[in-house]
Model the fold of this input.
Amino acid sequence: MDTAIRQLPQMFLAICFFHISEYFLAITIHGRRNVTLQSLLISKNYIVAMFFSLLEYLVEYSFFPELKERWWLSNLGLFLVVIGEVIRKMAIVTAGRSFTHLIKIRHEEHHKLVTHGIYRFVRHPGYCGFLIWSVGTQIMLINPISTVAYTLVVWRFFAGRIPYEENYLRRFFGNEYGQYAQRVPSGIPFVK
Ligand SMILES: C[S@@+](CC[C@H](N)C(=O)[O-])C[C@H]1O[C@@H](n2cnc3c(N)ncnc32)[C@H](O)[C@@H]1O
Done:
């Protein structure tokens, strides 16, 4: 009972913290005039996914309450939520103005190639952090179906987005980006 009673409040806090901090960081880095509510990163698909995970949680809690009592698994999920959040926020702070929520398709003067800090270890720490965070939320709720579904959907989304984003990065930074991409992994499993 103790574990289940804290899962939904933890989830609520994780979501609020993620989106509100994302929004205020964007304002701090890009200035209020350049930030829209899109920086909250709440899309229709995202709301549907969150609604589905809540539904799964409530159904399983009603019919198999003991499933939700695996405290060590729920705590592993909470750990992943924190780690994912830290990785993503490190990426945003490190990249600064180069980190825009919409992918840039035109090179702007202030857009510099970032290869230091956390970008020394993975090319896409922001996406890596989000993948860990989102899957972590479902492990924290001990939602088996949503854990698998989130892993597949978020992975697929980034597996498609990374080549598109990198196509522009190669145009902007040429060989410098090519060399960087050769020596540093993407940070998303099975994406080169
Ligand atoms: C939402 S941010 C995500 C950045 C990165 N993919 C990540 O996961 O940390 C997308 C913007 O970051 C820019 N970007 C991605 N990697 C970059 C890098 N190493 N240096 C500078 N800009 C980068 C892209 O051009 C794009 O406009």
Notes: The CA atoms of residues 92 and 99 lie 6 Å apart. Residues 91, 95, 98-101, 103-104, 113-114, 119, 124-127, 165, 168-169 surround S-adenosylmethionine (CB under 6 Å).
